[in-house]
Specification:
Elements lengths: L5 H21 L2 H19 L2 H24 L4 E7 L3 E6 L6 H29 L2 H17 L7 H13 L1 H22 L2 H23 L10 H24 L4 H5 L8
Antiparallel strand pairs: 1-2
Helix pairs in contact: 2-3, 3-4, 3-5, 4-5, 4-6, 4-9, 5-9, 6-7, 6-9, 7-8
Length: 266
């Protein structure tokens, strides 16, 4: 048998079997996650560079794991998380939140995990003064800061929504509308495609929240106490301030300064 012909014969014989096995594997959750993760790497590499893609994926994995950890901590079954090209990541619970406190705890866990990795890298940067450490710390800090913008469905929006809905449904819905308006203004001001996506998701979530409150007795989620609400808002401010300080502390690195333009297409 010719050595050139052998591979084609083997492919004809075993190809259909491998294809059938591969099709079954592709339908599994793990393969779907792997496929989305691979697509995310390609997407971010195409938009920016492979180095930026690695930083984004690394940050997203830690961030989303924070949400998964929080869900499990409060007893919410979870399917893990998915990396979604051009969107970021999404941790998937198997049941709805039972209270605004649960909603807040799960929402802030992602940025807290992101802050932890940024603090670690910033500490190494301060110790060794290596520009790469400062650049990565800044990018991770800014990516998590973007997620703390108080607009749903970003984590910052969910945290603020949990607090304001605990004060009153009317106040909460008003804050949601103000967030959408602010996002639209920022979108045109910064000419940001990322914020355009946020606006679309925010409008969808606002309609869902409005419909839920219209047809379900209020409050449909157990509200936080005044003390818990204050703690919720204080934790939001602390995380945002810490991430901002890290980003500012790395500005001596040129690559880190580029992180500040992450919201703008230009």
């Amino acid at each position: 048998m010719s050595s050139r012909v052998a591979p084609f014969i083997l492919a004809a014989a075993f190809g259909p079997k491998f294809f059938a096995i591969g099709s079954k594997l592709f339908k599994s959750v793990k393969m779907a996650k792997a496929g989305l993760a691979g697509a995310s790497v390609v997407a971010y590499s195409w938009l920016f560079s492979w180095e930026f893609a690695v930083i984004v994926i690394f940050s997203l994995v830690i961030h989303e794991y924070g949400h998964v950890w929080a869900m499990r901590a409060v007893g919410i079954p979870t399917r893990g998380f998915y990396l979604i090209p051009f969107v970021g990541g999404a941790a998937v619970p198997e049941r709805a939140f039972a209270s605004r406190l649960e909603e807040h705890f799960v929402a802030i866990a992602g940025p807290v995990f992101g802050l932890a990795q940024a603090v670690l890298l910033y500490g190494l940067f301060v110790t060794y003064q290596h520009p790469l450490l400062g650049a990565v710390a800044a990018w991770i800090a800014v990516l998590n800061l973007f997620n703390m913008i108080p607009i749903t469905p970003l984590d910052g929006g969910r945290i603020v929504k949990s607090a304001t809905m605990s004060v009153g449904s009317g106040i909460g819905m008003t804050v949601l509308m103000m967030g959408i308006f602010a996002a639209i203004v920022m979108m045109f001001w910064l000419r940001s495609w990322a914020l355009a996506l946020v606006v679309l998701f925010s409008l969808f979530e606002f309609m869902v929240e409005r419909r839920t409150h219209r047809f379900t007795p209020d409050p449909y989620l157990k509200r936080m106490t005044p003390g818990q609400t204050s703690w919720c808002l204080a934790s939001y401010v602390v995380v945002v301030a810490a991430l901002s300080l890290i980003a500012y502390g790395c500005l001596s690195v040129p690559e880190a300064r580029l992180a500040l333009s992450i919201l703008s297409d230009g």
